[in-house]
Amino acid sequence: MIINTNAAATAATYNLDRTNVNLQRSLTKLSSGLRINSAFDDAGGLAVSMKLSAAIRRTDAASANVGNSLSFLQTQDGVIKTAGSILERMSELATLSTDPIKTTEDRALYDTEFSELKDGLLGLLTEEFNGIPLFINPADTLLVRTSESGGQTIGITQADLQDVQSAVNGLSVDTDVNALAAVSALETQIQAVAVIRARNGAEQSRVSYAQDMLAVNRNNLEAANSQIMDTDIARESTEYAKQSILRQAGIAMLAQANTNSENTLRLLE
After folding, report:
1. Would you place residue 260 in the very low, low, confident or very high pLDDT band (cuts 50, 70, 90)?
2. Is residue 239 situated within a structural domain?
3. Structure confidence by residue, pLDDT tens digits, 54-94
4. Which uninterrupted H or E stretch holds 153?
5. 71 near 129, Cβ under 8 Å?
6. SS3 for 133?
7. What span, in angstroms and rounded, lies between the C-alpha atoms of 177 and 183?
């Protein structure tokens, strides 16, 4: 029996220190909700999680960009719809002017509104979305990045209304002959606008699907990151209870080890 070195107390202290560290880690995981709170917890898992987190943020940014592109197309569609309404009214005025009962004064009134509508159509060509022209001649394509890596793209069209406007610019309804010619020309241009609007609708549909795909990808990335980073509360609660019991046992054993040394000293009395 020796009293100079209390090996039992040293071992008990060492084990108690380890238990306190484990208890603190378990408490940190439970309080933060995260399984990995420092690189020490899981260096490899943290590295993977950082890449997943970056991909999630890039996906959010790509989704915002796609959303802006969808808004661009929706704004463009609204203007195209207005252009179609203008052409329909112009076509109506042209048809009214072919009425043989109409006087020259009547046709002049129709022609006044007809001219105003032509100016209104011209004004639509300058419409923009966040400084980007909705319409351009010749029509151009804007590339939208639809993946977080930027590898996938969709083209959205800066439509061309210039040809439509140019085609109706020289029309008038001031005479029966002119009105009849306008009816035929406007029918063609209304069809042209319908084609432009149909293409816009198709592009909106494709962009919407791309936005949905980004949302699905984000959910998958988030789920994968959760598997790495998030704490399993049930499992960690069990671990916390285990470490708490070990801590109590360690304190009791350290006290017992110190008591053994005191008992040895009594032999010298």
Report:
1. low
2. no
3. 999 999 999 999 999 999 999 999 999 999 999 999 999 99
4. strand 153-158
5. yes
6. strand
7. 10
pLDDT of amino acid 232: 84
**How many Cβ atoms are within 10 Å of 201's Cβ, its own excluded?**
13
Count up the domains in the chain and report the number: 1
How confident is the model over 147-186, as pLDDT tens digits? 998 899 999 999 999 999 999 999 999 999 999 999 999 9
What is the CATH classification number for the domain harbouring 93? Answer: 1.20.1330.10
What DSSP state is assigned to residue 171?
Answer: -
Task: Point out which residues pair with 154 in neighbouring strands.
Answer: 144
Six-digit token string for 155: 């083209």
Give the three-class secondary structure for 143. Answer: strand
How far is residue 237's CA from residue 239's CA, in Å, rounded to a whole number? 5
The answer as to whether 39 is a domain residue is no
> What was the pLDDT predicted at 248?
86
Structure tokens at 228: 């790495």
Is residue 203 in some structural domain? yes
Q: Domain containing 114: what range?
A: 63-228
Closest CA to 58 of 132, 162, 148: 148
Rounded to the nearest integer, the mean pLDDT of the chain is 90
Q: Is residue 114 part of a domain?
A: yes
